[in-house]
Amino acid sequence: MTTGESAITPQTGGFVPKLNLGMFFGVRTVSILATVLFCVGIDFFSGPQFMSRYAAGLIFLCGTYVALSVSLNLINGITGQFSIGHFAFFQIGAYTAAGCSKAFYATMHLPTLEWLVLMAIAGSITAAIAGFVVGLPSLRLRGDYLAIVTLGFGEIIRIATENITYLGGSKGIDITPHYQSIALIMLLAVGCIALSRNLLKTAFGLGFLAVREDEVAAVAMGVNVTRIKVLAFIIGSAFAGAAGALYAHKYGFIIPDQFKMDGSFIVLTMVILGGTGSVTGSILAAIILTLLPELLRDLHNVSFGGLIATALMVLVATFGIKRVIDTHFDLLKMKWLSALGVLAACVIGEIIIKMLLDLFPHVRTHAPIDGAQLRMVIYAATLVIVMLLRPQGMFAHHEFSWTWVKKVLHSKTAVKS
Amino acid sequence: MMLGATHLTMPFLASLDFATLPQQIINGLLSGSIYALIALGYTMVYGILKLINFAHGEVFMLGAYTALFVSYFFGFEPNSPYHATSVWYLVVMILASMTVSGLAGVIIEKVAYRPLRNQARIASLITAIGMSTLLQFGGQLFLPNSPPPNIDQRINPFSQQIKFNLVPHDSSLLAQLNVLKVTKSQADSAWKTRQKLETDTFSPSPEGVRIRSAAQEADRHFQDLSSRYQTSGVTVQMALGRIVTIIITIILMIGLTYLVLFTRQGRAMRAVSHDFDSASLMGVNVNSVVTFTFIIGSVLAGAAAMMDATLYQPGLQINTFFGLLPGVKAFVAAVLGGIGNIPGAVVGGLLMGVLESLVGWCGYTGWQDAAAFVVLIVVLLVRPAGILGSNEVEKV
Amino acid sequence: MTVLELDDASIKFGGLIAVNKVSFQVNEGQIFGLIGPNGAGKTTCFNLITGVYKPTSGSITFLGKSLSDVHTDKIAGLGIARTFQNIRLFSSLSVVENVMVGGLLRRKSSLPSALIYLPSSVTDTAQIRHRALELLEVLDLTDVADVRSKDLPYGKQRRLEIARALATDPKLLLLDEPAAGMNPNEKVDLMNTVKRLRDDFGKTILVIEHDMKFVMNLCENISVLDHGEKIAEGLPQEVRSNPKVISAYLGESTN
């Protein structure tokens, strides 16, 4: 149908954009090299001579969750397909690595890193197949139904792995080589980020976004909605699977119980907190929500009274701030001040209520709560609070860019309502 | 291929014990009634708000804990001394469970769902998942969780087993059986007295061998005839508690039907579930209808929880996650019957119960929980509207 | 040349015959109007043409090719683009991005090349963006190019839908009640824009509308539907004075 010409303005001939190929490839090569250096560098600096094993493990975990949340964002945030069973792909990748390593590692005599890369690829392939299977119902099902199907799929996978004795069943399976490669997981995370960003910087990304915004209109505009939905699932699940394979090797032992739907919930919370559709948001939220519970691990004696008081005040604060958000203020400054006022009042309230509660012997003598138990509670509370106060998440649909920084700095001087 | 199919299925079918089938079906229907009560909550909320109330399982859980605490109040704490029970204790327990669950449902709606009503449905769904998780893990901090407590079985006055003869057994066999019983006991006592005279009971004298084989043969005859007698008819048995459960369930469902069909509030509910916006334009107070729906659904779940933990499965262990699995199964039941459709929820619940029972009967008890998810996926792919639901085309 | 032909097209829903043996022809370069009172079956006709429904009898042909078995996702590729009665924009995308989605159809690069950010995808994107901006200029939306489409005033949203449909480079443009909700000034602007699309760019246009004045001033050839059947066809002045048309619109002013 089309020739090289633009059919709109036949007189002027086609628009031929000029691209300085030399500059283009130059910049690309430099940035790729810099990224690889960055990943290898992090790996080097997380070695035993620089930090504890615990801290290194934490960095690995951050990389894992960044990969998971950015890949989930591709499915949920960018393409608008509501998938809440993402951990299923993670588990499939992990178990693929476990199975392959059990069957072949001893006989193949490959160096560790190469084996890990091979396992990551294997994990991504099986997970991509699963992604394809899960993506097919998305062609026919509406949002909330699709969500349930993805959740159910995750549970079926978990129950299935519990019943496969070759993979250890419900007792778990050991994996050799037991090796934590921070370089590889970082490269994976960066690769996922790069892919998402590339997609969004080109017109193709708009096709995905169109599927999210209005499928009917997208079809009418000739967008191949079927292909896009299935592709989103395949790509997103492939990255999750690769991450799963590396994760399995890091721990050296996996068990189906690790992959309950709690995991999918955590990744979902990260995507929501970051803002669906925002790659930057997913990265930040993944890092924050991975590190935050670790800080809590050190809190071994949360007093019971303190816990009740904090819970009550968080509730009050949430609704107070929601009230502030919904109220109209002439000055943006006043809005921020009111919000801060609410927070301050709640902090004071927490202290007072805690003191009052401690007067009750029942409360005072209650066993202290271990900080680690609060992990899922904080995730769940974060999700609910974000949905109530700012459902578009931290970054809404925006990405980090230098122009955005300039805009923010300029608007600080303006007075808005 | 047909030959191959028969080769696979024949041994499988042969391994099934058809004699126990009626019992399994009855068991399935009983557990299905509990699922039906919970499914009603899901279906009514979905019908009104088009929202899957993920936190419904937790409302169920809270009802169970309420029943637990009320039982403590009546003196049935763990390791407490013997205490006489009374039907009135159960009455108070079920009313308390229904009240607390109803309140919980309303609070969850006001706090988590109402603020998001104007946004995309996905937002409410995400929040629902968040609330569900929050209640499970948050509850863990405040409620006794491990070791998981259970309602003292002594509070259940309906623990005797009742037998029903669906198909009467062959009475002539019964007479023969009684005769053989006498023969058997005679032969047994003969061998017993003989044993004392033998020096080595494992290689007795010829006379001892004769007496021993007589006893063994009498026993074998008795067992043969006994199993023939059993399979000659069909008997099912169930605990009286389960019968009470199903009676209460039926009463509650009759009450619900009356409410939905014949009262003003029920009419309002149906109007809102048909068309949210038009109903509000017609003067229906949508907010109060929504609250009312949540109350009804949650109250039913609370009743189901109390009955499940006390009468249906006495001694069932409760923890804050125990609402998850019944919740999911009841949700699948609601989808199976047609989500948004009240009779559909009942049909779906009963079907789920029977299906689960049959999966266990086939020997795959490990897969019983997965069965729910498989059913869900099959229904959503083949007939998303469910059995009793109607298909609606989105107009452009 | 006949661009679109409906030949005794009919569709039944259960017992209701929504469209009953409707026939008309749209020729190249025409601005054709399809009017009728509410519920006459106009949007159903549109849905028949765009593959949302399949006709139960009769045929629909586009440039000689039958549309009976063509699914909605192939329609744009064949050269038919449409706007919607209830505006369906990609709300959180900007104006120019909305139009670029339409332009994706005529892309020259592949998805894998975009994922690894090859030069071909970069130039293709720039080209699609350039054409989108050209279209915005035609429809006088250049000043709001980067505004989120959700934030646009109603009249501009309608123009944006037309720009987006044009980006697919169609042979036939279907406009579903494009003037709905516009004030008289906006309607005059729209009329001139549609005329320009035909005069300068050679588009064939089929319009569904309620507003008689708008249709009479814009369209060259009009078909009138009532209760699923065609009751009149011809030039605006013929249709306007047709007694059947007047009685079908009884109660509506036809000035």
Topology at a glance:
The complex is a heterotrimer of chains A (about 425), B (about 400) and C (about 260).
Chain A: H1 21-45, H2 53-78, H3 87-108, H4 112-138, H5 143-163, E1 173-174, H6 182-201, H7 203-213, H8 215-220, H9 225-251, E2 253-254, H10 261-274, H11 279-297, H12 304-326, H13 332-357, H14 361-364, H15 374-389, H16 402-411
Antiparallel strand pairs in A: 1-2
Chain B: H1 2-15, H2 21-49, H3 56-73, H4 87-113, H5 121-142, E1 161-167, H6 171-197, H7 206-231, E2 234-239, H8 240-262, H9 264-274, H10 276-281, H11 286-312, H12 324-337, H13 342-361, H14 368-382
Antiparallel strand pairs in B: 1-2
Chain C: E1 2-13, E2 16-27, E3 31-35, H1 42-49, E4 57-62, E5 65-66, H2 72-78, E6 80-82, H3 95-103, H4 111-115, H5 119-138, H6 154-167, E7 172-176, H7 184-201, E8 204-209, H8 212-218, E9 221-226, E10 229-234, H9 236-240, H10 243-248
Parallel strand pairs in C: 3-8, 3-9, 6-7, 7-8
Antiparallel strand pairs in C: 1-2, 1-4, 4-5, 9-10
Helix pairs in contact in C: 3-5, 3-6, 5-6
Structure description:
The complex is a heterotrimer of chains A (417), B (396) and C (255). Helices cover 71% and strands 1% of the residues of chain A. Chain A is built from 16 helices and 2 strands. Chain A has a two-stranded antiparallel ribbon with strand order 1-2. The longest helix of chain A has 27 residues, at 112-138. Chain B is mainly alpha-helical and 396 residues long. Chain B folds into 2 domains: 18-162 and 240-382, ABC transporter involved in vitamin B12 uptake, BtuC; 169-232. Chain B has helices spanning 2-15, 21-49, 56-73, 87-113, 121-142, 171-197, 206-231, 240-262, 264-274, 276-281, 286-312, 324-337, 342-361, 368-382; strands at residues 161-167, 234-239. The longest helix of chain B is centred in the N-terminal third of the chain and has 29 residues, at 21-49. The radius of gyration of chain B is 27 Å and the shape is elongated. In chain B, 41% of the residues are buried. The mean pLDDT of chain B is 84. Chain C has 10 helices and 10 strands. The mean pLDDT of chain C is 87. The chains are: A mainly alpha (417), B mainly alpha (396), C alpha/beta (255). Chains in contact: A-B, A-C, B-C. At the A-C interface, helix 1, helix 6, helix 7, helix 8 and helix 9 of A face helix 2, helix 3, helix 4, helix 5 and helix 6 of C.
